[in-house]
């Protein structure tokens, strides 16, 4: 859906460009022949001025379009948390996925109907016409309903599927491998949407493009539902967020209570399997151990004053990951910013491949996805097994995330060098080939391959079982927050510097990239500190060998 929206934005920008060209011709034809042909030199000067104004206006449209896309993406990413929360708290993964997939199918069918039935959309507007009929309230309402259904359906399936799939496996190695293959399927779908579906819409019809999406959704829904009896179903454990808040409240209420070193002084409650658990709270973040400490005249039924040791440890697991989550947000923000800047760079490069074909600026992101698909296969089949054979232990999630950090920072540096070369080429009166933008996209694709699957693997392993679905969707939330931060960063740069004018040929986008490199290096140092002190909660070696829970990422 995101790829289809990108193509729609590009189409709108193209139509606006045609409209301005047609308007220019209309203005000239309506003037007298003396004004159009009498003073050739003055006309050329005015025409050159008008062309500059149009170029600046179109660049502004491009920046505005990218702002709309970033906002749309941020809504989708933030909405991805809704489905996993419902799955963890009330219904379980499989029912949420089934209902959400059906809702998504309804949304795609409705979009197909909009492109098929004339009365569901405004009549076509001829190029250059100033009397275009706008959409009615009913038509807009149906369109927004369709988009809302698609977003809701995506929120309940995209990352809830990741958690449901990982639940089918027992060993962490198998779960980590599943997350890699899961991302491969996501990237494959994105490639199909950004190439085949967009090509069909542009060269055949939008009706056929959305119709193919509806058929694909219907087939996937039938296949998923038909296998429900074979899945391992997880049981919802109530609202996990309530338990987290209870730990904070109970520990705060007993903040003056002396912490005991005796196991019998703590409330253990029931373990995961319904048996009474017995263990001392861990020594990290000892303040919260008070939440499980029994005091005189304290009833076990008062859940806001007494929590179990397991609930305290679950809270600590979430609390322990938060510093790492911040580092992941700040490494994702440069990636999102680069996505917008690359498209603006592509718009002012030579995108011709031969005399007939011109690469669409928005399609450059396909390079990132293709690279990610290739590297995921290489990682699973070659790199990870080879590393485990040589080091006698697998790469930990944080080590993979750290490798991703390095590639992402390197990509920003290469982008800065390429942009500096482009500006020099423009100064000499030439246009740089769009192929110069391929290397940084390939490098960031490699970084994504290490970064995103490892993020999900880390959150899934380290978060409490009651938050397994919510944990897998955190990566999407991180990206959503990064879209907002990217928008704020670009706005700040535009207001405080001259690096991002409407026409980037007169700006310094390379300085923006170098700023992202500095932010990335500082953030990487912060990440290494967090990784050095981090202790894994659920790190199990897949080869039955002892492994230090302390990460050796550095």
TrEMBL record:
It is found in: Membrane. This is (thale cress) hypothetical protein. The lineage of its organism: Eukaryota, Viridiplantae, Streptophyta, Embryophyta, Tracheophyta. It is a multi-pass membrane protein. Keywords: Membrane, Transmembrane, Transmembrane helix. GO terms for molecular function: transmembrane transporter activity. The keyword Transmembrane helix applies. The chain crosses the membrane at residues 90-114, 141-161, 181-200, 206-227, 324-344, 364-386, 398-418, 430-450, 471-493, 513-534. Belongs to the major facilitator superfamily. Proton-dependent oligopeptide transporter (POT/PTR) (TC 2.A.17) family. Signal peptide: none annotated.
């Amino acid at each position: 859906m995101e790829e289809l929206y990108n193509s729609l934005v590009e189409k709108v920008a193209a139509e606006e460009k045609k409209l301005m060209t047609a308007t220019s011709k209309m203005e000239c034809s309506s003037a007298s022949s003396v004004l159009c042909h009498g003073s050739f030199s003055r006309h050329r000067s005015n025409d050159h001025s008008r062309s500059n104004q149009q170029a600046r206006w179109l660049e502004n449209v491009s920046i505005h379009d990218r702002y709309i896309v970033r906002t749309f993406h941020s809504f989708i990413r933030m909405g991805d948390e809704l489905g996993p929360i419902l799955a963890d708290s009330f219904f379980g993964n499989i029912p949420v996925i089934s209902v959400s997939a059906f809702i998504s199918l309804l949304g795609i069918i409705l979009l197909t109907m909009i492109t098929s039935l004339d009365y569901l959309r405004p009549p076509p507007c001829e190029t250059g016409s100033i009397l275009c009929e706008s959409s009615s309230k009913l038509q807009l309402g149906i369109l927004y309903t369709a988009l809302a259904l698609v977003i809701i359906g995506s929120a309940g399936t995209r990352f809830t599927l990741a958690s449901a799939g990982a639940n089918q496996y027992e060993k962490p190695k198998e779960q980590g491998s599943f997350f890699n293959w899961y991302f491969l399927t996501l990237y494959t779908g994105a490639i199909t949407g950004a190439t085949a579906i967009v090509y069909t819409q542009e060269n055949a019809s939008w009706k056929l493009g959305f119709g193919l999406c509806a058929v694909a959704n219907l087939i996937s829904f039938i296949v998923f539902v038909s296998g429900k009896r074979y899945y391992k179903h997880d049981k919802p454990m109530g609202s996990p967020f309530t338990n987290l808040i209870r730990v904070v409240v109970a520990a705060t209420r007993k903040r003056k209570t002396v912490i005991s070193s005796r196991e019998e002084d703590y409330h253990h409650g029931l373990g995961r399997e319904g048996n009474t658990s017995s263990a001392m709270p861990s020594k990290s973040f000892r303040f919260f151990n008070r939440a499980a400490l029994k005091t005189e005249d304290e009833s076990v039924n008062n859940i806001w004053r007494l929590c179990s040791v397991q609930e305290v440890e679950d809270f600590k697991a979430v609390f322990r990951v938060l510093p790492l989550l911040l580092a992941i947000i700040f490494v994702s923000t440069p990636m999102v910013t680069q996505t917008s800047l690359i498209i603006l760079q592509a718009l002012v490069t030579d995108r011709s491949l031969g005399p007939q074909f011109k690469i669409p600026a928005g399609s450059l992101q396909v390079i990132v996805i293709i690279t990610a698909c290739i590297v995921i296969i290489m990682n699973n089949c070659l790199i990870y097994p080879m590393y485990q054979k040589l080091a006698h232990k697998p790469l930990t999630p944080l080590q993979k995330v750290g490798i991703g950090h390095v590639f992402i920072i390197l990509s920003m540096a290469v982008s800065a060098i390429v942009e500096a070369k482009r500006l020099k080429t423009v100064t000499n009166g030439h246009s740089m080939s769009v192929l110069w933008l391929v290397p940084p996209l390939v490098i960031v694709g490699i970084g994504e391959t290490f970064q995103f699957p490892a993020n999900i693997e880390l959150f899934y392993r380290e978060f409490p079982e009651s938050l397994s679905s919510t944990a897998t969707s955190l990566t999407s939330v991180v990206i959503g927050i990064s879209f907002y931060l990217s928008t704020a960063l670009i706005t700040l740069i535009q207001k405080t510097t001259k690096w991002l004018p409407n026409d980037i040929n007169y700006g310094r986008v390379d300085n923006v990239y170098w700023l992202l490199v500095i932010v990335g290096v500082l953030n990487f140092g912060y990440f290494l500190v967090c990784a050095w002190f981090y202790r894994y909660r659920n790190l199990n070696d897949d080869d039955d060998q002892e492994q230090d829970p302390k990460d050796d990422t550095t």
